[in-house]
Amino acid sequence: MSHPDIYFVSLRSIATAASIGIHAFEAAARQKLYVSVTLILPRPMAIGDDIRTVQDYDFVREGVLKLAAEQHFNLQETLCGEILDLCLAQAGVLGAVVQTDKPDVYPAVAGVACRMARLRPSLAGFPWWTVKV
Fold first, then answer.
1. How many domains does the chain have?
2. Is the confidence at residue 1, as pLDDT, over 60?
3. N or C terminus of the chain with fewer C-beta within 10 Å?
4. pLDDT tens for residues 26-50?
5. Are the CB atoms for 122 and 3 separated by under 8 Å?
6. Which domain, by its residues, includes 63?
7. Distance of alpha carbon 111 from alpha carbon 34, whole angstroms
8. What confidence score (pLDDT) does residue 4 get?
9. Residue 3: count of CB within 10 angstroms of its CB
């Protein structure tokens, strides 16, 4: 199976406080949340050191912080889906892998995480689960 030339840009562990979860203690107060996003992008056509030849990724950080600030999410899966929508709405993005981590849900547990991906048809069959987030 052939795939286009691609590269990855990752924003790791965007730290925010979110209203997320179904437990009463989660709904009572915002909790620490880390969001990591890896964009799958087509290889730049131009060679050189020019910002105009690559994907602007500021929208990822800004969008994640806005989503976390503006609404309550019962499920990490729902938040991951919203972030994937945000990423794939950008022209040029071939796919994205998103992971949310809630580090303070349970004692003696490093965290509860959800990892999801969405790919354009040109990446059908691409093993997204191998992408480091």
1. 1
2. no
3. N
4. 888 999 999 999 999 998 766 777 7
5. yes
6. 6-125
7. 10
8. 67
9. 13
- Asked if the structure places residue 1 within a domain, the reply is no
The DSSP string of 56-109 is --HHHHHHHHHHHHH--BS-HHHHHHHHHHHHHTSTT--EEEEEEEETTSSTT-
Q: What amino acid occupies position 48?
A: G
For 60, phi then psi, to 5°, come to -65, -55
Is the pLDDT assigned to residue 16 strictly greater than 90?
Answer: yes
Q: How far apart are CA 5 and CA 119, in angstroms?
A: 14
Backbone φ, ψ for residue 123 (5° rounding)? -110, 20
pLDDT in tens, 112-128: 999 999 999 999 899 99
Residue that has been written with the tokens 């069959």 in this structure: 125
For residue 47 the two structure tokens come to 């060679």
Tell whether 133 is covered by a domain: no
**Within-domain flag for 102:** yes
Q: 102-131 burial by CB neighbour count: b if 16+ within 10 A, else e?
A: beebeeeeeeeebbbbbbeeebeebebeeb
